[in-house]
Amino acid sequence: MNKIICDTIVGALQGTNMQKLIIEGPTFLYGEIEIEGAKNAALPILTASILAEGQVIIKNVPDIADVRHTIEILEYLGCKTRFEDNIAYIDPTSIKNFTIPPQYAKMMRSSILFLGAILSKFKKVRLTNHPGGCEIGQRPIDLHISSFAQLGIDVFEYDNTIECRCDSVKGGEVFLPIPSVGATENIILASVFCDGEVIIRNAAKEPEIADLCHFLNKLGARIKGAGTHTIKIEGVKRLRNEVEHYIVIPDRIVAGTYLCAVATCGGEVLLKNVFPRHLDSILHILKSAGCKIKEQRDMVYIKKDRRLKGNQKITTHYYPGFPTDLQAPVCTVFSIAEGVTIIKETIFESRFKHVPELNKMGAQIHVEKDIAIINGVEKLRGCQVFAQDLRGGAALFIAGLCAEGKTEIVTAEHIDRGYERIEEKYSTLGAKIRRGQ
Ligand SMILES: CC(=O)N[C@H]1[C@@H](OP(=O)(O)OP(=O)(O)OC[C@H]2O[C@@H](n3ccc(=O)[nH]c3=O)[C@H](O)[C@@H]2O)O[C@H](CO)[C@@H](O)[C@@H]1O
Ligand SMILES: C=C(OP(=O)(O)O)C(=O)O
């Protein structure tokens, strides 16, 4: 990144709560680590909790910025909440607001899910700004809107606001031209109390969607087909009025990031509380490159004791394909592997913002449109780098662990959106990291 752009970013961030992570490398990683609950499951589940008739108790909720923001929104809507020791207690019985103000809508991508959930509850909802989240592409919401319209919901768009109203959500079929994760979740949330049945064709199959469906079913919803391309939601009159305990699934992207960190730095780590099946695509890539991997029921062991082989062609895909959320960390892995590796990003059009920063650290990666061509180098060197999105930040974090000397990641708050106490957790594996302002 050139100096003018750096100065612009620093200038824009002055006065905000800018966080730095300072890493002394290189380091090997050794030990055991417990994987936290999945951000992308916890966020829709917390949002869905407003549909319950009494308090819900949700366990294994990661203590990350996006979760704290979601809880703030729930409070604003009128829910009573408590969040401690990774357990969220949400009592939605006094919920009264049906409008999400702009400061909350902008906080994260998943604020869009309040559209479906609040509409289900009040038959009206207003989101007064487009959702925020990682700037990794255009990220339109046209599929959310057009799907709602197909269910008989009136949607009005004005002054950046989206307002939806209906007397009831009508049963029927919705076909998604793209298996969008967020649109699938929003349709599910909107349809819990529908007339008859809503069928989603070409639904997204990500495990986090299945987790949302399991949570809703536990509360009394009738959803079938979660984890497949056809999801059927039979409308119910109301959800149960009893305390429920729900345990969020482990975060496959956080687990994948640890795997990438070991595959980059070297060492030997046992990941606990994972679902190995959710990690198939990344495990396959790392095994082919030369990592030693053993899988057990809810654990994965990884060892890297020699330089990895590149020469792979990797393409991001919808689940169960290789996830776009691990594309950036995998770029770091292959930046120091032997040979040339090609990574094609098919889901988001601007998701290589970490590449110029990795190149500042000595990597040789060339981006042409949606393809990154990685020429593996022997080693990386530490310097000051800018995280511009969550997973790009994770890629720089891993690069900092293996680089020689000091790496300073400016704008680490991007990383805090999705990784719980990252410096503390990696320090238990031997990394030297501190946080500064
Ligand atoms: C909070 C959350 O769960 N975020 C995840 C979710 O994001 P998110 O739900 O935003 O991602 P989507 O699956 O919706 O996006 C997939 C593709 O569909 C396009 N699209 C989406 C909606 C729409 O109305 N119109 C449209 O064209 C997007 O621009 C993108 O190219 O899935 C992504 C893809 O696995 C992950 O990277 C994100 O981590
Ligand atoms: C893109 C991501 O998050 P979000 O959709 O919340 O911006 C992510 O988790 O990598």
From TrEMBL:
Coiled coil: none annotated. UDP-N-acetyl-alpha-D-glucosamine binds at residues 109, 139-143, 325, 347. It comes from Caldicellulosiruptor saccharolyticus (strain ATCC 43494 / DSM 8903 / Tp8T 6331). The keyword DNA damage does not apply. It is found in: Cytoplasm. Cell wall formation. Adds enolpyruvyl to UDP-N-acetylglucosamine. Its EC number is 2.5.1.7. GO terms for molecular function: UDP-N-acetylglucosamine 1-carboxyvinyltransferase activity. Belongs to the EPSP synthase family. MurA subfamily. PANTHER family: UDP-N-ACETYLGLUCOSAMINE 1-CARBOXYVINYLTRANSFERASE (PTHR43783), UDP-N-ACETYLGLUCOSAMINE 1-CARBOXYVINYLTRANSFERASE 2 (PTHR43783:SF2). This is UDP-N-acetylglucosamine 1-carboxyvinyltransferase.
